[in-house]
Specification:
Pfam families: Hemocyanin_M, Hemocyanin_N. By secondary structure, the protein is mainly α. The protein is built from 14 helices and two strands; from the N terminus they run H-H-H-H-H-H-H-H-H-E-E-H-H-H-H-H. It has a domain at 81-305: di-copper center containing domain from catechol oxidase. It has a two-stranded antiparallel sheet with strand order 1-2. It starts with a helix and ends in an 8-residue tail after the last helix.
Length: 322
C-alpha cells in the first residue's frame, strides 16, 4: 500500500528525496485528497529563514529556552546595503517562496501528463508563462514603489550586475554562496553557455517561422494562439510535455543553473549551488528576476507575432453588463 511504501522509504531513502517524493505523491494521488501536508517552511526551515536566525534559535535551545522569539527586519536601515535590498520584504517573504515551491510540486517539470493521465495539465505551458509573468509583474510593481528603475535587459555578453548574499545554509551547515556584483556566466561540466544560447536561438527561430519541430521531425504549427502559447510554454520550461525535449532541451533549467553554479561552474572547489538552483529559495535573488525577464521576453516575441484581436474574439453574444 501507499502508506507502507512511504513508511519504508522514510527509513531507507535520502531524507530530502523522500520529503519531495511524498509531497508530490500526496498532491497528485486521488486517494490522498484532503491530506494536509506540513508547511514547507516547517519541513525545511533552513531554506526560508536566515542562517543567523537559525543559529540564534539553536543557541536559545541549548540554553534551555522552550519559547524564544527573534525579530527579523529585512528592510531595516542596517540591512539595506544595496538598493535591491529595499525589496527584501517581498523577495524574502516566506509565504511567497513557499508558494513558488508549491507550484512546482503541483506541476513538476518531469511529470508527463499523458503518461499519468493528468487532465489538469491541458494548458500547462500557458500556465507556466502566466505564473511567472504574474510574479515578475508583482516584483516590478515593488521596484516602482521603492523608486527603483526598471531592470536592464539581459545580455549574454555582459556580466550579471546584481550581486547577492542570501545568508542561508543547507541542512548540513554549508552556506549558500554569495555572489559579487558583475559576476560572469561560465560553462558547466555538463553543458556550455553556447549550448544554452543555441537552444534559445532554436526557440526564437521557431517563433519567427510559425512552427516547431516535433520528435519525429514533423512540423507543428504554433500560429493558433490557443495551442501555440501552450506549446511554446512547454518548450521554454523544458517539461515532459515538450513536443521535442531532445531538440529544444530544458532551456529555463539550464539557464538558471548557469546562475546557480556561477561561483564554481566546474565544481572544482566544492561550492554549493546558489539559491536560484532551488524552487524554495530562487525568488530571493534579484538576478532571478533579471533572467526571468529575459525568459518572458520569448513569450512576448511569440505574442507579437499573433494577429490583432477581431471584434468576434472579444464579443460575447448574450452577455450584458448592467
Amino acid at each position: 500500500t501507499f502508506i507502507k511504501t512511504a513508511a519504508w522509504a522514510r527509513d531507507h531513502v535520502n531524507e530530502g528525496q523522500f520529503a519531495y517524493a511524498l509531497s508530490v505523491a500526496v498532491i497528485q494521488r486521488d486517494d490522498t485528497t484532503g491530506v494536509v501536508l506540513p508547511p514547507l517552511y516547517e519541513v525545511y526551515p533552513h531554506l526560508y529563514f536566515h542562517g543567523s536566525d537559525i543559529a540564534e534559535f539553536q543557541s536559545a535551545k541549548m540554553q534551555g529556552h522552550t519559547h524564544y522569539v527573534a525579530m527579523t527586519n529585512w528592510t531595516g536601515a542596517s540591512d539595506v546595503l544595496h538598493p535591491e535590498d529595499l525589496l527584501g520584504y517581498f523577495t524574502q517573504d516566506v509565504g511567497l517562496n513557499a508558494y513558488h515551491a508549491y507550484a512546482h510540486l503541483y506541476q513538476p517539470f518531469w511529470l508527463n501528463s499523458e503518461k499519468y493521465g493528468l487532465n489538469t495539465y491541458v494548458n500547462r505551458g500557458e500556465a507556466f508563462y502566466y505564473f511567472y509573468q504574474q510574479i515578475l509583474a508583482h516584483y516590478n510593481l515593488h521596484r516602482l514603489a521603492n523608486y527603483l528603475p526598471e531592470m536592464n535587459d539581459f545580455d549574454w555578453n555582459m556580466p550579471i550586475e546584481y550581486g547577492y548574499n542570501p545568508d542561508l545554509k543547507y541542512h548540513n551547515g554549508q552556506a549558500f554562496p554569495a555572489r559579487p556584483d558583475n559576476a560572469e556566466l561560465s560553462s558547466l561540466k555538463s553543458y556550455t553557455v553556447e549550448d544554452v544560447k543555441t537552444i534559445e536561438k532554436r526557440i526564437k527561430d521557431a517563433i519567427d517561422s510559425g512552427y516547431v519541430i516535433g520528435k519525429d521531425g514533423n512540423v507543428i504549427s504554433i500560429k493558433n494562439y490557443i495551442h501555440g502559447i501552450n506549446i511554446i510554454g512547454n518548450i521554454v520550461e523544458g517539461n515532459e510535455d515538450s513536443v521535442n525535449s531532445r531538440y529544444y532541451g530544458s532551456y529555463t533549467t539550464m539557464l538558471h543553473n548557469l546562475l546557480a553554479l556561477i561561483m564554481d561552474p566546474a565544481t572544482e572547489h566544492g561550492v554549493a549551488p546558489g539559491v536560484v538552483g532551488h524552487y524554495e529559495t530562487a525568488l530571493r535573488d534579484p538576478a532571478f528576476y533579471y533572467l526571468q525577464k529575459h525568459i518572458n521576453g520569448i513569450f512576448k516575441q511569440y505574442k507579437d507575432q499573433l494577429p490583432s484581436y477581431r471584434g468576434d474574439d472579444l464579443f460575447f453574444s448574450g452577455v450584458a453588463v448592467k
